[in-house]
Amino acid sequence: MTSDPVVSIVLPTYNNVGTIGAAIQSVIFQSFQDWELLLLDDGSTDGTRELVGAFDDPRIRLIQDGQHLGLAPRLNQGIDLARGSLIARMDGDDICYPTRLASEVAYLSIRGDVDLVGSFAAFFESPDTPLGIFRAPEHHTELCDRMPGIIRLIHPTWLGRATWFRRHHYHPSFRRIEDQELLLRANKTSRYACVQEIGLAYRLHSGSRRRVRNEILDQYYHLRLRLIFSEQRQRYRTIAKVILSRGPKLVYRPLLAGLGLTKLAHQRVLTPPTSTEQAALRELIRRCQR
């Protein structure tokens, strides 16, 4: 019987046949090799499961029951099934940089006070168009300085202690931004950090009805979160601020998505990639394509 891995990578997938191969390949290419990959299929109908089954690696575990439950329930399922002492997040359309796990594992091994760490992310549009780099500050205080707004950790870059994830399961009623709900809820008793290097290539999909729907849901759940986590004495001020900040986004972000201009909605928070970063991203995507 083999020993338990250090890292369990929880990857829910739903109809990702066009991208899941590159995602899995990027895990296989990790410089840190003591992992298991939990692929939780959420009732795919496009051949995703068959493609996953073509990978001959005993560390890859495909979990399937034919049901479509949604992201948060699948994440909780993965947390409960994980055998590693650390749990990493990933999505079926993103790509890990080769040193992502090694860097994040090393960070948590040094910083015993940190519960959850993320990394920078290189945003791109298919097939390999770099859009910019999302860079976040390293330490907890700076990451959380916009509360009850966004806590600046990109969800599929996360690596955290399994004990932390099991104390703070995802809220099943949040169909979108379930990561932000978890971060806000756990914040008072947790410490977050961000490795100061690019760990993930984050794929943006534009011009689809699904993207428009997701943008509308995102704004609704952001509104809901801010009202839930704002202090009672500041509730009315928060409502006014949210209406002013989120109201326009409820209009222009779905519109940009519908017009295939999703990247414009992200330019405010992305820094331009250097020529070296662009070349590295394109080479990573090329290498991981099957």
Describe it:
This protein has about 290 residues and is of the alpha/beta class. It has two domains: about 5-205 and about 265-290, Spore Coat Polysaccharide Biosynthesis Protein SpsA, Chain A (Alpha-Beta Complex); about 210-260. About 40% of the residues lie in helices and about 20% in strands. The chain is built from eleven helices and nine strands. It has helices at about 20-30, 50-55, 70-80, 100-110, 140-145, 160-165, 180-185, 210-230, 235-260, 260-265, 275-290; strands spanning about 5-15, 35-40, 60-65, 85-90, 95, 115-125, 130-135, 160, 190-205. Strands 1, 2, 3, 4, 5, 6, 7, 8 and 9 form a nine-stranded mixed sheet that branches. α2 links the parallel β2 and β3 (about 60-65). α1 (about 20-30) crosses α11 and α8 runs antiparallel to α9. It is globular. The two termini are about 30 Å apart.
List keywords for this structure.
290 residues; single chain; 2 domains; globular; Spore Coat Polysaccharide Biosynthesis Protein SpsA, Chain A; alpha/beta; 11 helices
Topology:
Blueprint: E1 7-13, H1 20-28, E2 35-41, H2 48-53, E3 60-64, H3 71-81, E4 86-89, E5 95-96, H4 100-110, E6 116-125, E7 129-134, H5 140-143, E8 159-161, H6 162-167, H7 178-186, E9 192-204, H8 209-229, H9 235-258, H10 262-266, H11 275-288
Parallel strand pairs: 1-2, 1-4, 2-3, 6-9
Antiparallel strand pairs: 4-8, 5-9, 6-7, 6-8
Helix pairs in contact: 1-11, 8-9
Brief summary:
With 290 residues, the chain is of the alpha/beta class. It contains 11 helices and 9 strands. Strands 1, 2, 3, 4, 5, 6, 7, 8 and 9 form a 9-stranded mixed sheet that branches.
